[in-house]
Write a structure and sequence with these properties.
The protein is mostly helical. The protein has one domain. The chain has five helices and no strands. α4 runs antiparallel to α5. The protein is globular, with a radius of gyration of 16 Å. It starts with a helix and ends in an 8-residue tail after the last helix. The mean pLDDT is 91.
């Protein structure tokens, strides 16, 4: 199977951008994010937000730069599983918000899939043609 290193790099950049931007936004609105996490029942919300910033911004930058892609992609995928199960419980949402939470849940499932594909392909990135 022939793969494109340019498409691989673009895809990695787009995937990483989600996490880098999300991590930076958590930094700029730290107290609000901690308050939100506390409201949805996340224990030790301040620590949880600090970990989220580290995984999102740090992991996103690592993926973007190509540093330790396999382990970082797995860590970010596991983080995304936990975040999805914590913040997008569509099965518990009020009827008015159920579709929105379901959309976020499914989007995150797709992102987890992309991260796992990235981890699987990280050993042999595509060669330039």
């Amino acid at each position: 199977m022939q793969t494109s290193s340019v498409l691989h790099r673009i895809g990695r950049t787009l995937l990483a951008s989600l996490f880098v931007i999300s991590g930076v936004l958590k930094i700029t609105a730290f107290s609000s994010v901690v308050g939100y996490m506390d409201r949805i029942g996340v224990p030790f919300a301040t620590i949880a937000v600090l970990v989220a910033i580290l995984v999102e911004a740090g992991g996103g930058l690592a993926i973007l730069s190509g540093w330790q892609i396999r382990p970082v992609a797995v860590i970010v995928a596991l983080f995304t599983v936990m975040a999805t199960l914590t913040a997008h419980r569509f099965w518990q949402a009020e009827p008015a918000g159920m579709q929105n939470q379901l959309n976020h849940f499914l989007k995150n499932i797709s992102i987890i899939g992309a991260l796992l594909m990235l981890a699987a392909s990280a050993d042999s990135p595509p060669k330039e043609k």
